[in-house]
Give the backbone structure.
Amino acid sequence: MDSLNDTRSDFIKEKHNETNKDAIDEQTPLKSEESTNDKSKHEAEERKLSILERLRIIKANITVEPIMACYIMPSVLASLATQNLNLEKACRVNLNFSAEVCDALTMRATENYTQEEIEVQTLTASVQAWKNIVQTAIPVMLILFVGAWSDKTGKRKSCIMLPIVGEFLTCIGFIINTYYFYELPVEVAALTEAIFPAITGGWFTNFIGVFSYISDITTVEERTYRVGIVNLCMTLGYPIGSALSGILLTWIGYYGVFSLSAILYFFSLIYGYYYLEEPKTAKLEKNKKKGRGFLREFFDVSLVLDTFKVAFKKGPGNRRLRVALLLIAVCVIFGPMHGEYVSLFIKLYILVALVFYTILSTIQLLDVVSVISVSKNLGNKIV
């Protein structure tokens, strides 16, 4: 009898526990929903924090990228305006053709002025020929010493900023050439375009400084990624500047294009001066001779000889041959870009407007960029 009572009491307790469990389960969905909401809020907060952290990391790692974007784009942006300024000066100032003839050539109504168009382009092409020699010969000589001097002293910022100063002065010179349009011939405009970038190193010096800077501030693991980001900023500058050059020249004229380019260069200079710091790397062995000035230290022939020895020294996997092939590839890729004058050919034989030429040159640049990208990938695989 006692065992029966015990069994009955146990059964009642189990029923009571099940009833309480059901009651708790009925309230559990509300509690789990609240906990789920709290969890989702917590995850959202963590996600927000991670995004902010990523933005901070991106900001902390931005160094030379804005400088390159504001250096390449205005240079390409002003190139078409420069070519047209030279053509107009050759027509109106040097050859002293009438306003009717030059206006017709500008509007591409050249049916009755074929001979005048040929004379204008002949003069412009001859000026461009010696201008390119000045614009490239001086930097080529300087670059032999700049790289070695920068490695020796650890100064990268000067190599990056000085060419931008040259481009800024060039834009100011173009504004002056536009203001004194009839007083200054086309030779002065061409010399303005050539001399300032040449004596400050031009693109060559800037590129050396930028990529050396990236190598100094990055680790081996992140170097490829950072170099790719810098290349991206450079690559985007070409088509953007080319796409906008003809449109902006039509809308705002010479003053607007050259002023906009000067503003972008000035922004690049301000950013570089205040936000770009010299990399904290160990300098090479300092010169033991006392009293050597900057010029003697800069134009050190022994450093140039060391540069050539390092570039063409023997190494595993036909290293010297690979370096020679890469140099030949650079000449083949970039040589036609500097030697051809597509705009003159198009103006003479195809008779298209500036905007159409802008579209065509943008497509051409995108094609060249794709070829360069493929060449770099193949080069990396070969090396």
